[in-house]
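ok so I'm stuck.
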Amino acid sequence: MANPLTRMPTVFVAHGSPMAALETGQSSQVWARLGKELPRPRAILCISAHWETQGTRVTSMAHPPTIHDFRGFPPALYDMQYPAPGDPALAREIARETGAQLDDGWGLDHGCWTLLHHMYPEAGIPVLQLSLDTAKTAAEHLAMGRRLRPLRDRGVLVLGSGNVVHNLRQGLGAHPPPAWATAVNSQVRSWVREGREGELVRWREKGPDFRLAINSGEHFLPLLYVLGAAQEGEQVEVFNDRLEMGSIAMTSYKFG
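replied:
not stuck anymore, here's the structure
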């Protein structure tokens, strides 16, 4: 268990296809290594692209179910379970500190458990999810991330799960990747390294390449939570830096 006086890193991990849960490819190997390299957390708070709500919610049940929120995949994927415990007491703390509502109707969606299956295969660490409030602006999502910052000092891993570049309608399967996907992934990488949060929250104003690459936005927003949870001047590590299937960026970031 993490020393409560030791600040946990905060990490944005690109999750890609749900099939990664079954595979032992490059990403799954990176996630397994990440789980071994990080200090062991007391609990994990995951902000996934796949839980959008009206108002912010935090899962509060003792035993969150594994959610198979996808269609058209092999039966073996639907048979997978990730039986990590929840932490109702921590959920109440997070609700008090962030204004989130307690939620016992969700669980762990594939943006969360497909990563954790490789990072912590024993499923022994309590896991909670925090939702994306669809009414919030990008700046408000970043500000919510800042409210999560104290959790890191209490042994909680704040884990964002999405993809900086994510467009399933254009560019998917292209080889080489479209120029707009490469350009946006590179620009975001530079802004993250330079700590230019103001540029990142204004991504909708950055022109057609950004609108193609980030598209509907929900896969980008978890990065803002991790940026908010990061401390100014913390070391940034970029890993798994590549484009997959043409228009999905697997580029991931660790702070601290």
